[in-house]
């Protein structure tokens, strides 16, 4: 039987879903960027806000940046796996019901349906976890006066959302 997520975990824990996309093979990096910023993100942001998504961001990783990451990795001993996707989106929210509302929104579904010429529909990567932020605006945050993290313990933080 699944453990029910405690209310204090939903309030304190900020969930983060990332979805990594590769370009459609017939789309240039520049075309994907133009579509992603001008046609997709500006419209989908309003849908996310309407349903209570606390944060939404797009991370771009063009081949020039992946090359720079590979060079840095080589200088550090080649221990990293450099992800080769073109972009990923990040969503920050408190509970899975919020993401379900977004996914069910007809306007969101229409925007997803229009991705075909730009984003590949195969080889999509996703991860779900929570965020523990320790520096914000150049200042240490979420650390108590006693020097301990101000987050719930593993038993509550790791309960499935």
From TrEMBL:
It comes from the Eukaryota. InterPro entries: Dimeric_a/b-barrel, EthD_dom. One of its GO terms (molecular function) is oxidoreductase activity. Residues 25-119 form the EthD domain. Belongs to the tpcK family. This is EthD domain-containing protein. It comes from Tolypocladium ophioglossoides (strain CBS 100239).
């Amino acid at each position: 039987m699944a453990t029910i997520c405690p209310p204090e975990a939903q309030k304190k824990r900020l969930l983060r879903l990332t979805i990594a996309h590769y370009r459609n093979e017939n789309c240039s990096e520049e075309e994907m960027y133009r579509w992603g910023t001008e046609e997709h993100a500006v419209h989908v942001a309003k849908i996310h806000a309407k349903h209570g998504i606390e944060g939404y961001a797009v991370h771009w990783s063009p081949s020039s940046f992946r090359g720079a990451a590979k060079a840095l990795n080589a200088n550090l001993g080649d221990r990293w796996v450099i992800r080769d996707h073109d972009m990923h989106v990040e969503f920050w929210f408190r509970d899975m019901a919020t993401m379900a509302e977004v996914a069910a929104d007809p306007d969101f579904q229409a925007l997803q349906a229009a991705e075909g010429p730009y984003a590949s529909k195969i080889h999509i990567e996703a991860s779900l976890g929570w965020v523990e932020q320790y520096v914000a605006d150049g200042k240490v945050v979420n650390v108590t006066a006693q020097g301990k993290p101000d987050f719930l313990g593993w038993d509550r933080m790791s309960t499935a959302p």
